[in-house]
Amino acid sequence: MVIRILILRAPGTNCDEETARALREVGAEACIVHTNKLLSNEVDLFSYHGLVLPGGFSYGDRVRAGAIWASKLKSRLMEKLMEYALNGNPILGICNGFQALIELGVLPFTRRTDLNPKAALAPNISSKFEARWVYLKCHSNTCIFTRYIDVNEVPRMPVAHSEGRFILGEGLSGEELSKRGQVVFKYVKANGAPANSEYPFNPNGSMFDIAGICNEDGNVLGLMPHPERAVYDWQLPDYTSVRRYSGHADGWRIFKSMIEYIEEEIR
Amino acid sequence: MYNKLPLPFELYEVDILKASEEDLLKISSEMGLNLNLNEMKAVKEFFVKRGRNPTDVELQTIGQLWSEHCRHKVFKGLIVNDEGKIVADNMLKNFIARATEEINAPWVLSFLEDNAGIVDFTDEHAIAVKVETHNHPSAIDPFGGAATGIGGVIRDVLGVWAKPIALIDVLCFGPLDYPYDKLPKGVKHPRYIMRGVVAGIGHYGNNFGTPTTTGAICFDEGYVGNVVVYAGCVGILPKPKYIRRVKPGDYILVIGNKTGRDGIHGATFASADLREDSEVSSRPAVQIPDPIEEEKLKRAILRIRDEELGSGITDLGGGGLAVAVVEMADRIKGGATVWLDKLHLREKMSPWEIWISESQERMLMGVPKDNLEKVLKIVNEEELECSVIGRFEDDNRVRVFFNDYLIVDLDVSFLLSPPKIVRKARWIPPNYDEPSFPEPENLNDELLRVLSSPNIASRENIIRTYDHEVQGNTALKPLHGEHGGPNDASIVKPLDRSWKGVVISVGLKPQYSKIDPYWMAASSIEEALRNNIAVGGRRIAILDNFTWGNPEKPDRLGQLVEAVKACYDFSKAFNTPFISGKDSLYNESPLGPVLPTLLITAIGIIPDIRKAVSLDLKSPKNPLYLLGLTRLELGASEYYRLKGFIGKSVPKVYVNESRKAMECVTKAIDRGYVRACHDLSEGGLGVAIAEMALSSNYGAVVDLSRVRREGVSRNDLVLFSESNGRFLLEIEKKSASEFEKLARDLGCTYSKIGEVSSDGSLVVSGINGEIVIDLPISEIRRAWKEGLKW
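^ Those are the sequences you sent over. The predicted structure of the assembly is below.
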């Protein structure tokens, strides 16, 4: 059976095609669907094995990044989306998609009744758009999207955003999230040492250097870096400099993990 | 002179039949038509023949269509010298287009004709390119002006059914440390302008979702009163989808944004000098950007294209609907009927305002009757608005109705043939001396000073605010590796199933026009090509974008003619055809004319992006070769400029030498000899080797006595000469003898001038063997990275 992934788009979503390419690269069938088609029930979320909210500037990121996209989904699709997540289906939010998952209240916690956002992705400390490659370290062994990433590795991916500073709401701490295995990626230096908020290793000033988090069950991941821009070795910023590369870059492993999880656990 | 007609909307009849010459000029000025007496007389003559007076809408239509911005009257006009002898007749046809026609390259699919130039790419796909200027709006509103510049050029590419895949921004500002008290009234500070322009470009490109991959920035006093903003876009389209088959009877659709009162008289504003009160008087000429609306527009257009539902398309740019409808009607040698009241509006407007508004994010499309429903469905699904505003006809007339009342009835051919203008040109070369100053003792300091000059220093802080990797196809990036090295060109790999890449580079040498605009243009072309070739590009097409002063002043026009002559000469000589171009004239402010500026954009291809070459040094002990001859050519160089001189010895282009060097680089790259390559431009050899080293984790040892040179006998001049035609290459050690044989066989001037070192410093020995530069790369890198503060 073919693995089918739904890539949701909205006006201003602009990373859907490369995300679809990444998913095809790992053997999935990727369908780019307009948000309105999902809201009008023309397309059924449950006929797909997984869901990706790709990057971009949905609805111009007016109000806050991802806020309008999230509120559209919240008003018409929230129950289905929660059911979909709680069933264990993988959901991946990249950049603007991560912002939307936070606004929706699906991250950091899916298992709860109150849907007010418990975290936020605030404007970068530099108050600028930051397009640069960052080094990450994987801190979770429960997240289903990191099956192909070893905790000792330092994968590289680019970020490109102006609102990516992860902050938690009152009464919540990074340690707590970390203890539960929900801190999936942290920004680090090239040698794997903690970024400790140092710019530009931590490009936006995120608390605890957080680059990506998952929900309690590990099947919903949101991250600011763009794995779909690091699928092939030729996308690396020093591809022409280093001759040892062959084939894939680190972002590929996130999509590979997603598909393997679906093959083993869902189908 | 103006009679308001008794109608439920605002319409005037303008009494031109009885108008004296004085009245004609008054009408032109009061209605903002910006037409001269000769042109107004032609208008009068037309209506005399018709035996009726025009409406205000008709006069506005003529004003827009006959504007310099839309008709390129100077480039198509007759140019004479002081004695009345013809210097040039129709420069566009006889210099620019002629070069392309004579080269007659089979891979040029469309040039100087449609919204964008089109070249062949793969069997199935073609590449479309367009570069525009948005200088005047950016001077008034830096953010909005620059953003709508990007928006406009994207629509040019959508206007040939292509999908945008890369953006280009080339910017020229006054010095950032320009004293505030020297600014004339109405002129904004360069720092304020730059912040707004950079933010505007980033905002539009990032939101729209096309990577800004290529650019350049130049600072000079000649831009204080006139900022220069070039915006370019590269697109890709399946060849069979380049559809231009509008037929009489097809509907005219306007898709996208609501039309409002922004951008009224933008085309005529762009065809006049900036004045002290431009801020107030021309504010309505600046449009409002909405990149998300354009993103939706892109989705809809590409879907309509893929299903082949449209019969023709064009963007709504300068002159708004009036220009787009007339030009599209002309394409089919037909006419059009327009129902102007059907258009979706943002606010209540008079018919003339609706007809010429330049509101952004709108496209004009021809749609056959049978496809209308399907098109409307797509437009609706993408959450766009759309109006069916008319129909193409088979006669040569444009008729516009408002509430069933005929308000425009004009001949298409009349609207497209303004009276030919005659302008006087005078070119008197300036008389600068070659400076004489003692050779500095400490070249370490000189190198660091040149590297930290804002014209040379790293652009990283700007480029990082642009998303240069969205779409995931930027194979060679503007910032290379961990140190953000300045690659000579960017490469985009637009197709999943092909390794072929589009190589995008620019050439910009405006400083040289202080001495000689002919060699300025020649150098810009040559540098654009060298930048492209340095990374592996070939089969290169070019675009010309002129930014000039008031062409009614003979000295400005004299310079322009010189530059245009060079365009013909060197396009031909390098066998590189012009596929598109645009001129922006009347760049004048209370501070005088803009520094005459020609941007050359070069679009090459690389058969396999895996063979691309970046500039960073790759491994110790590899030899460094300099291709080309170093001459005493420092006129208008960055080195002289920093010493307070202009000089006389402007770099020239030696076509034979240059072509051989280019061929040698391409062959050496294809044979796998080249590990790194960088072109020599501003700051010459000194800057080139420093940039190659600072982009890597290695150093270099260089011996200036080995540099092949002519008439240069000082270390500083060898280091900073800006002679064209030169490349610096790191060659794989085991391929060195094969590379030398290749260079010899091709008849190139070359020499091994040093090698890559592992000790992290740059050591340069002078002509007499003494050490003249010894600097840690970290210090070089810091000077370069921290030079541009803004």
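The first helix of chain B runs from residue 21 to 30. Residues 2-71 of chain B form a domain with the Helicase, Ruva Protein; domain 3 fold (CATH 1.10.8.750).

Shout if you want it in another format.
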